[in-house]
Amino acid sequence: MEEEETRRCWPVPRMHLLLLLLLVFAQPGNGDEDKQVHDPINPQSVQQWAKTLGMELWTCGKYVTRRDDLLERYNKQHANVIERSGSNIVLEMAKEVKEMMDLKISALKRIMDAAEATAISSHDELVLEHEYWNAKLIVPQGEEVPEGSREMVLTPNSHFYNIPVNTSFSTVHVPTNVFDGAPDVMRAIKWSENLDSIFTYNYKFDPSLSWQYFGSSFGFMRQYPALQWKQEPVDLYDCRTRGWYIEAATSAKDVVILVDFSGSMTGMRKEIARHAVNSILDTLSNNDFVNIFTFSEETQELIPCFRDTLVQATLANVRELKGSLEELETKDIANFTTALTRAFELLQWAREERYGAMCNQAIMLVTDEVPALYEEIFQEYNWKELPNMPVRLFTYLIGREVPDVERIKWVACANQGYYVHLSTLAEVRESVLNYVQVMARPMVLKRTVHPVTWTPVYADVTDPKMTDWLWEMKECAEQKERFESYRKDKEKFDSKEEQDRRFAKKLRRTQDQTSGDLIKYQLMTSVSMPVFDMRDNATRVANLLGVAGTDVPIQDILKLLPPHMLGVNGYAFIVTNNGFVLTHPDLRPVFQDILKPSYNSVDMSEVELMDTETEARELSDAMKAFRDAVINQSTGTVTLDTRYHFDGMRRASRIRRHYYYTAIATTPFTLVISLPDKYGASKVHGVEEIRRSVAEGQHIMSYFKGKDWRVHPDWIYCKYHYDTEHEFDSAEHELLHFLDRAQRPGWHWPLRKLSTPPEHQSDANGKTGKVDKDSYYCDRNLFLSLLFDAKMTEGFSKNLSESPPTDSEPMAMFMVLLTRKGLKEQFGVTVSFIATHTGLTRWHDFPLGVDPDDANVEGQFSSHHNKATDELWYRRAVEQHMVQPDSFVYSVPHEVSHRNDTLITASHALFLNKNERRAPVAVVGFQFLQSALFNRFQNITSKCAVPNCKRTCAHQNVSCYLLDNHGYVIISDELQDSGHFFGEIQGYVMQKMIDEGIYQRIRIFDYQAVCFKGDGVTSDATPSRMQKHHILSWFFDWIVSKFLFLYVQTSLQDIWHSSWAHPSGGEEAYEEIYEDTTESGKPGDRHKRTEGKVLINRTRPQTCDQQVDLYQLNTRLRSPRGSSDKKGKPITNNQKYEIKHCTRPFLIEPVETSNMLLVIVDSLCEIPFHEMTVIPNEVSYNESLACHRLRGNILPRKTLSPCINHHPKEKEIELCGRANRPIHAWSGLIVALLFWLLATE
């Protein structure tokens, strides 16, 4: 029976050292304070403590991780270190991405061709009724089928995010504001069914294809594969307002919106106007530019700082504009001359200065009447080069009873625009979308050009406007929880512990800017293409049939940017023509599981932080030049000094990086890769050829025996094209499957993927063949390199005693001489591990109190640490190697408080040095109990290590700490200090270490932060004006049947009542407070007294900038002896930091062969209080962020091509306006509700 393995890692001190310490050790007497102060801690003793602790840790780490044995094995097997060429890698990766994107475009063209051909043959068909698969009305087989629904076989498919789908059909999504019984809509739904054959054809030839769809100009969307449409709490989706549709349907545009806020625009007219403007803004994207002017007697920008300019229609700017619409008041008489002149002059300036979209231009006029024709203005600004007009003018007539329609309609028709009459809220969105058809006319008339459009990153079907609503629901849940807690136990609610808990929760909510579940938000880009009405007699109509598109998940793109090619701490990212990142390792689009307000317009300069001491948003010349080269799709390289954050923005570091960039041809994207200086230019090369190994009689499957190994779950070693036909329980099972196949006869290494479109693939007979369901692709180099690493690390899980020590040091010999039972009693190791550069992770468990063979410990380590080079301890170990090669990096979880099972993680990088190059091949490490380190730390520091030692860490007035290289506490006298920033505990000492240069400050700016602004909403039982407006906006913006029917069935009281602020249970909680009385017997006094404690401060998430000062140990402290100066003396505060009665309030000493610092604080010294924190705080600009960015440097962008904004035949089109259309009968109920809400104000 095998003995137990090593657990604790603190050896019994050597006998002669123990005796020496016993002789010199002396407890201080109980003298007065002045005497204790004049007995300073001996610096030499501190130095010896640090040396002893470091030596024991290093020896223990080498022993349990087999460091020396592993290095020897790699060197004996002739693993080489070769050059990693960034220039070649970026070109190769860009080529891979381009070929993948070409496949998507090829599939898209087939959809477009089929749609245009089918529409021609069906345009005369009269369809009054047709049964189709409505995505909202299908039910999975086996479930109860409600009336009006249909049953369909739906099977979960891993390729489509495990959503139940049917790959034989498509389904149709119809927005709630579209009537699918209209003949035109029904006809389009019917003929578009023929696209199913194209959808399935595309998927068979390119199994990597994601969702395919056709968005009709009538509003419905046909999507493949078929799925049941579920969007909670309400269905807000309309494909015509999505970026992939709008950008494909129209070229980029500059839009000036003129909103009449004269005295006649009151009541319902004012609300319709607001809703119309919001609907226009919803159709704009990052490639568009916009500004809004309100006019009555005077014409003013809606936002004063947007004066005389156009702003990019990012989510942040659009959000700013929408928010400013809420507070406007109507007054005076409208001056149309001034308003139109300002709009035309602004657009003319943009054309002359080549600013903005530099393609389409439009004025959107929202008013209740036009008193004149204003021909002189049009003559001066828009009719100089007829028939071409640089600006289109769209008019939106507001109100039921209007004096004159002809003038406002003529204004639109005479300027190649469109007129719409809006008399009810229900028709606003549908009517506003008419302008898209008009702006698409030049493309439709040209016919021969179908521009391919790529969107910025976005979150699938999630509407960004849901951010505020979802945040409100989170606050509602929090309010409900507080009321329930108060009702359950008032004393506990008021207790200090409960108040601390609530404060900590609030702090975490505002501090943690890196949290968020990306899984439920499927980030992607989409490629789309317009579909035209190609009928010969359609030239006088120029109909846009719709837009065809397909999604490209960001994860699919990342698979073509394999991290193993870039090495540890290297990464790749993609930048759009606007300078925004499509993908980047520091892109953080989600905050507390909610999309950030401006998640898809993060500039590359906001994530690539230069190492300069500048203020927020001040770009260096080097960064500007780098950015310009990237957005202009140049090919080149640049080296820059950068700073970066990691570990949830709790740590920061500096690093020199080499950037390589090149265009992804035929797209608006540029690929950039970043490699760290020095070690990033080299890589380890070692492969295990399978056929040769098999021929030599080696059993390669034996390299993967047991269950104590993992491979990187996101890396592709080998994979089937149709992964749904070959599903595996884990990445390890998939690897073993292909490893078994690789040993069989007939194995070959295929291409990594399909590199050419299906129409260009043919067999020897010239016939195009389908992709076989058993076809696969491999990364040959990665696969064989993984086998090599598996061979090198095969014995990692053997018993430690089976590997004789190569180290002759007494400590190493001592460890071997101890029995395993003795080791278990002396050491605190729970697991040792190794992770290689090829993604292989092995570990060896040392379970507590049980035999390893009997313990069910599988997954304890691997479930959290299976991503090799992506693990934090891996990346930190490699960086630490560049500072001190022979050292471990030690870290403890943040804020672990009083947990007794806290584990410390130690990691050490293994570098190979060959051919005058060095590169990391693996990282070894171990985890051990913090309690074991605490005990050993106390044991070492409680004894004098040199003569004349009066005080040690065992004394009551001495505080001793172990800090890591970023200033976080690993060991302290108080367990609750562990994981906390040292400045929060000993701010004065930390500040003096910074002043002395022991720690260096690194200021990090977070340009993706979310701050919380009060929305002015009280939590009273009577709804405030803002609450009522919030409800109004909800109904104005989204007339959705599910939501309506749910609430219409309730009373009006239920709709506007404070349940918006307090969901179910909130009203009862209020009633209890109101019914309670104080001792004086006055009802309601208790409510006033507890209101501040029970009611939360309602907030609204806002985009903001934050900054935080983080710290890193100065690398100059590291010397062979572990001291900072040439004489090897411990670092201490000098005389200029002298405090009363204290020449040395604290002493510090680097712990040898580690990233730790020993800090001894003399508590008898009257150390001043100094507050420090690493909590980010908002950067104050004394104005909104949107205004500050506009006042600063406006970053350049590259305009998209082609620009199709006019066609000579467009003048033949007579259709340029439409009156209001009939709406559903239940819209009257909505209007009655809205009027009641307005009346309550």
Automatic annotation (TrEMBL):
Keywords: Calcium, Calcium channel, Calcium transport, Disulfide bond, Glycoprotein, Ion channel, Ion transport, Membrane, Metal-binding, Signal, Transmembrane, Transmembrane helix, Transport, Voltage-gated channel. CDD domains: PDC2_MCP_like (cd12912), vWA_VGCC_like (cd01463). It comes from Cloeon dipterum. SMART domains: VWA. Residues 1-31 form the signal peptide. InterPro entries: Ca_channel_alpha-2/delta, VDCC_a2/dsu, VWA_N, VWF_A, vWFA_dom_sf. GO terms for cellular component: voltage-gated calcium channel complex. It is found in: Membrane. The keyword Membrane applies. It is a single-pass type I membrane protein. Its main location: membrane. The keyword NADP does not apply. One of its GO terms (molecular function) is metal ion binding. Transmembrane segments: none annotated. Residues 254-436 form the VWFA domain. This is VWFA domain-containing protein. It comes from the Eukaryota. PROSITE patterns: VWFA (PS50234).
